[in-house]
Specification:
By secondary structure, the chain is an alpha/beta fold. It has helices at 30-45, 72-75, 81-98, 114-120, 148-156, 158-167, 173-178, 191-203, 207-220, 225-240, 243-253; strands at 6-10, 15-19, 52-56, 60-62, 103-107, 110-112, 124-128, 132-134, 171-172, 184-186. The chain folds into two domains: 6-203, 2-enoyl-CoA Hydratase, Chain A, domain 1 (Alpha-Beta Complex), CATH 3.90.226.10; 207-254, Lyase 2-enoyl-coa Hydratase, Chain  A, domain 2 (Orthogonal Bundle). The termini are far apart. It binds ligand LHQ.
Length: 263
């Protein structure tokens, strides 16, 4: 077992968080959950950190739950997996969705089970061309969790959602990008360069406004158009009072690059 289940690297304006149990394809045990939550929380509260990049060590991104830790043979007659979900996975997904900093996921290899759905909960997902997304749950008699049924249905529609979830068929990175499940598939050897360039550009962007954009887009699918128009009005009011709006317009009028401070 690796000593540090999550690596947390602070870079120039952003942080890189790496799931680090490569021998298990970064499958989650409780230590890895705690370390990831802690790394996300500390990036969230760090004023110098304006974007978060999540990836995996080794050849996989994440194979979901470490099944050795949830082996029914060891759990007794009436295991309560709902408790695992409520204690570990749901808070993690809520944390990723509610941090106002953009979370980029660089899917470096297979993303299976909850690992696929943790990737899909991030704001911008890049995947190595060799990576695959697998809703592996049905293969072990479980239903997709960590928002899987929500992401698949919202992003792909019922037909594809049901087929992927019921068959556990792997979906290639290119297929995921073509279907609109992720942002882009990139060549394997370019993945981290592209992901880091994206993190850096977001870190140098109007961070507060990017948080407002995240809030608006996430609210859109639950809102009517009228509600969304009202929300946009409120968020634009807030963005219009930011220093970055002032700077963005000055830079445009002066034909120079904007120097955003994130406030
Ligand atoms: C693993 C795992 C793994 C342990 C690979 N655990 N060791 C929530 C609530 C509570 C309980 C249940 O779960 C959940 C949420 C979930 O995530 S359920 C879904 C759990 N995940 C899976 O069912 C995926 C299981 N893994 C696989 O199907 C394959 O490993 C994939 C398709 C991901 C990759 O296949 P390969 O590239 O052929 O790699 P491999 O199978 O040879 O795995 C490499 C090693 O990693 C191997 O160990 P070994 O000692 O033999 O080298 C695997 O045993 C280990 N590993 N996933 N989830």
């Amino acid at each position: 077992m690796t000593e540090t289940p999550v690596l947390h690297d602070r870079r120039d304006g952003y942080s890189v968080i790496t799931l680090n149990r490569p021998d298990k394809l970064n499958a989650f045990n409780e230590e890895q959950h705690a370390a990831l939550r802690e790394a996300l929380a500390s990036s969230g509260s760090d004023k110098e950190c304006r974007a978060i990049l999540l990836t995996g060590a080794g050849r996989g991104f994440c194979a979901g739950q470490d099944l050795g830790d949830r082996d029914p043979a060891l759990l007794g007659d009436s295991p309560d997996l709902g408790r695992t979900i409520e204690t570990f996975y749901n808070p993690l997904i809520r944390q990723i969705r509610s941090t106002d900093k953009p979370v980029i996921c660089a899917v470096n290899g297979v993303a299976a089970g909850a690992g696929a759905n943790i990737a899909l909960s991030c704001d911008i997902v890049l995947a190595a061309r060799s990576a695959k997304f697998i809703q592996a749950f049905a293969k072990i008699g479980l239903v997709p969790d960590s928002g899987g049924t929500w992401w698949l249905t919202r992003l792909l529609g019922e037909a594809r959602a049901k087929a992927l979830a019921m068959t556990a068929a792997p979906l290639s990175a290119e297929g995921a990008a073509a279907w609109g499940l992720i942002w882009r598939a990139v060549d394997d050897d370019r993945l981290m360069d592209e992901a880091e360039a994206l993190a850096l550009s977001l870190a140098r962007g109007p961070t507060h406004t990017i948080g407002l954009i995240k809030k608006a887009v996430q609210a859109a699918s639950d809102n009517t158009l009228d509600q969304q128009l009202d929300l946009e009005r409120e968020l634009q009011r807030e963005a219009g009072r930011s220093g970055d709006y002032r700077e963005g317009v000055s830079a445009f009028l002066e034909k120079r690059p904007a120097n955003f401070t994130g406030r």
